[in-house]
Amino acid sequence: MDNPEEDPVFGGVNLLNKLLHDLDERGLVLSLAAFAEDALGHLLSVFMLPTESTHQLLEGFNAPLGTFSSRIKAAYSLGLIEKVQFDDLEHLRKMRNEFAHNWRPINFENPKIAAHIKALNYSDIDDSFPETPHAKLRSSFSSRLIELRSAANQIEIKGGIKATSSRLFPLFSGNDTTQKINGAEQRVNALETNLKLATGEKLVFFKLLRKRVEGQLYILFGQAPEEQKQEVMALIARVKSMVRDEK
Description:
CATH superfamily of the largest domain: Nucleotidyltransferases  domain 2
Structural class: mainly alpha
Helix content: 55-70%
Mean pLDDT: 90
CATH class of the largest domain: Mainly Alpha
Number of helices: 10
Strand content: under 5%
Radius of gyration: 20 Å
CATH topology of the largest domain: Four Helix Bundle (Hemerythrin (Met), subunit A)
Number of strands: 0
Shape: globular
């Protein structure tokens, strides 16, 4: 597809990500929250029966599931999102309330806002550490919003059967195993360097990335032909050895 904004599943996320770079801090939070609220409503609607009762629960004045808060709780209670996603959405909701209900100037240096951003989980699809609060918020919710849209799409494809997990777990790219192994080696080299140099929050980020890369390598090992499994195992051993080197 030439225009990613026309993608039937992720087009809205792609357009939002394009717009976020031009928004101030208030606009960033309010836009992310509005999109997340809509995405949760869609996720709940495809999970439930296509009836007027479902519409009344989700839409209209005083709809029980018409608010951001109620949709977050309902999606979590129904098993449509995981605890990590629930926590991040709650942080976003509370930030949204701070910006929406405060007429005074407020920004990411506000102690309440800063604490919520610090508590956000890092993106499951970004290998780069977000250097600023603005970057962390964008990065984390680019991942979360894709997960919500992906979960809804899975349910629609399966005809109403809910997905067991909507968390993202990207694998190594490439047309064949050799390309995937080469890409994996590059990521392991970069990870090794970053773990040696990182401190503070960066070290926390790259420790989490190490666990993700290890999991990806085990999947690659299962996919690799016998003659290439040893190469993958060598990479797994390197990643495991990084645990002993962590500060």
